[in-house]
Fold:
Amino acid sequence: MAAGLLGLGARRLLAVAATRGLPVAHVRWESSSSRAVIAPSAVAGKRTPEPTVRWQEDPDPEDENLYEKNPDSHGYDKDPVVDLWNMRVVFFFGFSIVLVFGSTFVAYLPDYRCMGCPREWNGMQEWARREAERLVKYREANGLPIMESNCFDPSKIQLPEDED
Amino acid sequence: MLKIIIPTIMLIPLTWMSKPNMIWINTTTYGLLISLISLFYLNQPNDNTLNSSLMFFSDSLSAPLLALTTWLLPLMLMASQHHLSKEPLTRKKLYISMLILLQLFLIMTFTASELIFFYILFEATLIPTLIIITRWGNQTERLNAGLYFLFYTLMGSLPLLVALLYIHNFMGSLNFLMIQYWIQPLPNSWSNIFLWLACMMAFMVKMPLYGLHLWLPKAHVEAPIAGSMVLAAVLLKLGGYGMMRITTLLNPLTNFMAYPFMMLSLWGMIMTSSICLRQTDLKSLIAYSSVSHMALVIVAVLIQTPWSYMGATALMIAHGLTSSMLFCLANSNYERIHSRTMILARGLQTLLPLMAAWWLLASLTNLALPPTINLIGELFVVMSSFSWSNITIILMGINITITALYSLYMLITTQRGKYSHHIKNIKPSFTRENALMTLHLLPLLLLSLNPKIILGPLY
Structure:
């Protein structure tokens, strides 16, 4: 859920930095091993001064920053509870129900083409292939010939009696 | 069909009677459930149609379009939540009601079995769309845009009404399933030529055909995000769907009447693709790319071969999802910088890397990367037009190249390079936006695994 490279913590920091300015150090500290010095910043807590000329590309002051009041905002609503539930509803119904069940349904749809007409309109191709593989496997396992030259079993054909 | 229509109608009382902080949650939930139900119509067991009643039927052509329409409503609701957040409650509910009404009319249009019923609903879809564009659009040009949109479509479809009434008189019924069996070849005479023109011009304007496309950039650009999404994804496909239905009545005139429109489409797709290369406005670029893709569908429908129909259907579904996703991405830019100019928000990859991933995938599907269904559609259309006339391959090839050029141009301008200095403080991507992109992209990618459901009745 955390957006890409910016984790939730980093987003909070960014949101805070955008509104309150960078966090500051309150005491002066000098490192004993190097020449690093951490000192209260001269611009601590000061926000960037309001520009004297407003450009079109400046952020609109009327734009509300949803992250300001609710750093964990999902972008749906100002109210954190409604926002959270909206996110949950979208993810549950959108992904878990529709995409998952829908894809399963579509994946298990019967053989699409023309179930009633096998040969003429190329119907039941997938079924035909599976059935053929199954029969070949069965016949090879039982030592029967894979294919017989008779379409129908000759013993089952009942011919009418010869009449003179 | 009532199992989709009644829940959609009931979404309207749901919006008006929900608690104020629950309107979006309720409508999104039930919209998603309705889209789940509409997937049942994808079970098309044979060549014939699934007849739900005397008035409605679903075919392997209309079922994917139905699924696309119902899938799009929750996505439109999610996309609109931010820009409507400051509106008063009644206006929010009105907006949602317009979207639901539009969805209702679209569902009935795609499943109508009688052609006059189809026509009435085809016109009825104009009204909520016009209201959405002119009331909730962002710039003053939206009034002009609404005018262009309304009158172009009306001018095209009035002759269609006359033609349908004539055919009804002549044949006795306009029930689409029955007249398929009664049609006789249309002899070549002036009045039949005008009949052909009258029937087809409404759909040509809707698609749009290159010479009649002026309404599209205006309407798409000025509409709010939900309006752009539904216009690009579904309303354009109404034209394609209508053309595929009505050409069954118009044979064999189509064989020679189609030539001027084929020329316009073949030339127009290159022209509009080239215009895309010179656009500064992001939404305008996506709008012109819609014209270009739909020109391919027009070519496919006019050729009338099995492969081209398969390509047309696949391309309609693929383009619906891709174009809607691109508009959502453009809107996510617009909500941050309040401008549609591409170069104002560039180098976004460093600032919003996940959104850059969606931009990349959307641009890749737009340029018909294998193995997406966009490629399947385009490839089938290119192959069938090649068999119709060998020279078209040159034009199609140029179009595919320029499509790749402008898709990558759009991607590189908005995502790559150094970001402009004034967008450092844009807000990070919301979960809502990422979910929206994923909900567009996942069906597209899943369909690439199983494209047979969108290949239409001639598969």
